[in-house]
Design brief:
Layout (H helix, E strand, L loop, with lengths): L23 H17 L2 H14 L6 E7 L5 H11 L4 E8 L2 H8 L4 E5 L12 E7 L7 H14 E10 L3 H14 L3 H13 L3 H14 L4 E8 L3 E8 L8
Parallel strand pairs: 1-2, 1-4, 2-3, 4-5
Antiparallel strand pairs: 5-7, 6-7
Helix pairs in contact: 5-8, 6-7
Length: 247
């Protein structure tokens, strides 16, 4: 722990939503509030900023398939589809999650399908999606699990991998603690919100994780980290086309 940021809390500190604590109404409200956080505090912007270059390289009207890992109720996947379609791309999304009620909600969204599966064992062929995306989930994982998930996302992606998450800091922890109490009396949100920040990585940690994975099993990806005000970031891996051998 330093004056700049708290020490990272490990995955053994379970969030209530993950533990299945709370009523269906409290869980649904927690997802609605997460949507507002993504909308108003940079969550969506972090991903869309990272994907601009990907879409610029695709011809207008070309199909684009997003896979949203641990995508919950599909709110983020629906935004991805709408954002890409607004740029004249024929986009669709597949949400992968273990939560059945959330997947039912996801399947009701425009351009979105859902499949129940473990994030570390995606039921998809190699390079079968254009972009594999994951938002606000990596902080649930230990370092080795995060590395394994990143490699699994690389396996499935044809073009790009995007990991969108919170940035761990004292300021973010305090801000989320206060916002959770101003916005709702939902115990899931009030407990899980600050804990999520304490469990999150910082940009250098995500970058190091990606480079370590790339040095061994995903060497054809090049990595960047974008910071998004106030406390979001996106790790972006772009698959590099193989260089043709000299004649």
């Amino acid at each position: 722990m330093t004056w700049r940021r708290p020490a990272r809390v490990g995955p053994e500190a379970a969030e209530l939503l993950d533990a299945g604590v709370g009523s269906p109404a409290e869980e649904a409200e927690a997802y609605r509030l997460l949507e507002q956080v993504n909308l108003r505090l940079g969550g969506y912007r972090a991903t869309f900023r990272a994907l601009e270059a990907l879409l610029r390289e695709e011809p207008a009207g070309a199909p684009v398939l997003f896979v949203d890992v641990a995508g919950g109720d599909g709110a983020f996947a629906e935004r991805l589809v709408a954002w890409a379609r607004g740029r004249n791309r024929n986009a669709s999304a597949l949400v992968v999650d273990l939560n059945l009620p959330a997947l039912e909600a996801a399947a009701a969204r425009a351009g979105v399908l859902g499949v129940r599966a473990d994030a570390l064992r995606l039921p998809l062929a190699d390079r079968s999606a254009d972009c594999v995306h994951c938002a606000a989930f990596f902080h649930h994982l230990g370092v080795e699990q995060a590395r394994a998930l990143l490699l699994e996302m690389c396996r499935v992606s044809r073009r790009a991998v995007v990991v969108n998450d919170l940035v761990r800091s004292w300021v973010a922890t305090g801000a989320i603690w206060a916002l959770a109490r101003l916005l709702t009396d939902n115990p899931l949100v009030q407990y899980d919100g600050p804990l999520s920040v304490r469990k999150s990585f910082v940009p250098d940690e995500l970058r190091s994780l990606a480079h370590a994975a790339g040095a061994t099993e995903a060497p054809d990806f090049r990595w960047r980290v974008f910071r998004q005000f106030p406390y979001r970031m996106a790790l972006v891996g772009a698959r590099v086309a193989p260089t043709s051998p000299a004649p």
